[in-house]
Amino acid sequence: MESERELLLVEENPRKGGLRTMPFIIVNGSFERVASFGLQANLIIYLMTYYNMTAATGTIILGLWGALSNGLALFGAITADFYLGRYRAVAYGSISTLVGMIILWLTAMIPQLKSSPCSQIQHVCNGVTALQLVVLFSSFVFMSIGAGFVEPCSIIFGADQLENKKNPENERILESYFNWYYASSGISIILAVTVIVYIQDNYGWKVGFGVPAILMFLSVLMFQIGSPLYIKVKPKTTENLVIGLFQAAVAAFRKRNTRRPLSDCDGFYRWPLESDVLTPSKDFRCLNRACIIEDPQRDLNPDGSASNPWNLCSVEQVESLKALIKALPMWSTCFMIFVDINVFSFSLLQTKTMDRHIFPHFEVPAASFSVFMIAALTIWIAFYDRVLVPLLSKYTGQPRGLSPITRMGIGLISSGMSIALSAITESIRRQRAIEEGHEDDPNALVNMSAMWFVPQYALLGVAEATHAVGQVEFFYALFPKSMSSIASSMYTVGTAVSSLIGSILVSGVDWLSSTGGKTSWLSSNINRGHIDYFFWLLSFLSFINFLYFLVVCRFYESLNDGSSRLSHVAEDKECDYRLLHES
């Protein structure tokens, strides 16, 4: 009923929504990405220079920042769906991001808000005050809150403006919108890691942080200018899916001593009554207690709904909880690939000491090398979709060429190979630096081309493309339709957990390798440290993770063709279900 009212609202307001809103929404998202990614690409250098952080400490802080931003995306999506609405979520998130960028820009403009760079001659460093760190971290928090609201809501808010189920061209219009939105996102990221990074390297941090702040201001302004034209879908008043999962777990625990019925489905609670899921599956049967009706008079309201949702849950809620539990083992295999991507900030320190000239008078900024990863990711997705899928589908019988699980495995292998190549390249770079007498000068240029790092960036791009797309498709096949939003959120939450794991791993390696007065593997002087050892450790962990992935795959054999395991819905159609409110 709610969706029907929203559709009527759209039809009664023909001046709202439509293609006229797209420039405002796409410009808002594009400028936000240019500003955000432009700041992140080079930030490790800023932290090491003006806050006297070591390479390890800076990487840990950036990892925690990434974990917070990605973790808040799930919170932002839930808040937008059930409390704020997507319009206010994007508006508040954009403003929060702008506040964070202005604070970060002020740290570059006001000398008292940052420490002075260390003296290269006397090796003297001024300490960083608590106030300076509070100001810095507050900028990160504001930007994380903003990203948590904007990232999951912006693209769906745009779809709200175009969706019209009575239009026969509805699907084509939405597909075109999604393509343009993702294309603009890719272009934005490329501009961020090239143009913004170039400005920071050549015009300093005052201009380098000021330009993203100005872009973010324009992003907020454009979004607000389009406000009178937007369709503003109200928050849902229906039950929160995430709360429903908790209710199913609590209800099953409370009824842990209840006997499970062995026969018909009469004793199971189903809501809404039109649901296709008639009986719970046989997997995790201990959870089936949550949907058992013990006393209809006590457990049900006159309309058939549960009187206490924390004591009686629907079959749908129980099956959703089971689907989530089934997904967790495979989801945990994705952490390592994102750890590999997140700790690649050390590669920035490596390429900064190497010859980055493509042409005699053009030098690629060190932080811009990630553009090779983005380019490889984009090219691989297009190549796989247009060339490999038609060829592979003839031999595998799969409409998408390779199954989601197979593509995830290819991504894990590619990621491990990329890190192994990085270890080999760093061993060669470090050896040359020592031979050239640069052991005590981490800023000295080594007579070695930075193009050595292009293959590992490209491999990492292919790894992310194959694994990420395969993972999302896998979750969509495993989860019921009601959990589509959770399926897309699993990827974001996985990156958050990976950022946290990466920060813990960097902290542990830095501490263990520096015990006894030894030089840390992750020393800021990379010519004395051993980043290659750290990369070999990541390669070994990636190999162990791949073995773990192979073990986990044995539990998903029926999903290896991309089909759903939730077949009990169709099998149990013959169950003679009795409408509870009529009994």
UniProtKB/TrEMBL annotation:
The chain crosses the membrane at residues 43-68, 89-110, 130-159, 180-199, 211-231, 366-384, 405-424, 491-513, 533-556. Its main location: membrane. CDD domains: MFS_NPF1_2. Keywords: Membrane, Transmembrane, Transmembrane helix. It is a multi-pass membrane protein. InterPro entries: MFS_trans_sf, POT_fam. PANTHER family: OLIGOPEPTIDE TRANSPORTER-RELATED (PTHR11654). This is LATD/NIP. It comes from Solanum tuberosum (Potato).
